[in-house]
Amino acid sequence: MIGRLLAGLAVSLFTSVASAEEMKLAVTTSFENSGLSGVLLPAIREDTGIDVRLLVVGTGQALRLGQAGDVDAILVHSRSAEEAFVAEGYGTHRREIMYNDFVFIGPVDDPAAVGIASSAIDALQKIGDARPAFVSRGDDSGTHKKELSLWRQAGFKADTFGGWYRQVGAGMGASLNTASGLNAYILADRASWLNFGNKGDLALLYAGDPVLFNQYAFLPVNPERHAHVRNDLAEKLEAWLTGPRAQELIDSYSINGETLFTFNATAQ
Questions:
Q1: Which of 55, 130, 229, 265 is deepest in the core (most CB within 10 A)?
Q2: Per-residue confidence at 268, pLDDT binned at 50, 70, 90?
Q3: pTM of the predicted model as reported, rounded to 2 decimal places
Q4: CA-closest candidate to residue 102, choices 166, 26, 30
């Protein structure tokens, strides 16, 4: 009798362990700060049996984790860097999942007049000319890469700026906190801003320029580079992320009635 109970317990424990496989996914801080991961991860576990362990870093660090084989897949938002990752053989492919947009946040009194900018480039030209406090992620993230690209298009070199330009080397939430404390301007993704609880005297001042489009993509790490990675689980997760349940959860996720992401995965 005891033997049968022990055998049954062993089978139960084995089934429990076997039914919950773990994979490592490097994601951007903006994705985590949006709150969407808290919606998706339980559903992924329920539908696929995969426990997704998130490593929350900037896009640049996420790509380096993938290059080193320290994660099984990455979910980031910097297309040129992603395409280079795949071209260099570190990723098997790039699959678009969803998008939102970047927005300019700043003091309510808007001393640089960003609120009347005609474009994203014009917004940065106004900030570059007025030189109010500006907070930069400064962490090689997708948001940081986008910000530097926009500064270049606006005719400025960020590495020549003085003390008004604060590079914090931190994630989106921490950077927004710094901007709130300094009453400074910052480029943020809309989802992180909407989910940010310490807005202080900051407000969303400018959005809507197509150049501020912010695409998120899923990239499985190449098992030919790193044989130990769980490519099988990455493929299973990708199928879920591009399927109808993910679409429903992503498109319905909102804060105060405002949608944070739009699903746009297409069939392979």
A1: 229
A2: low
A3: 0.85
A4: 30
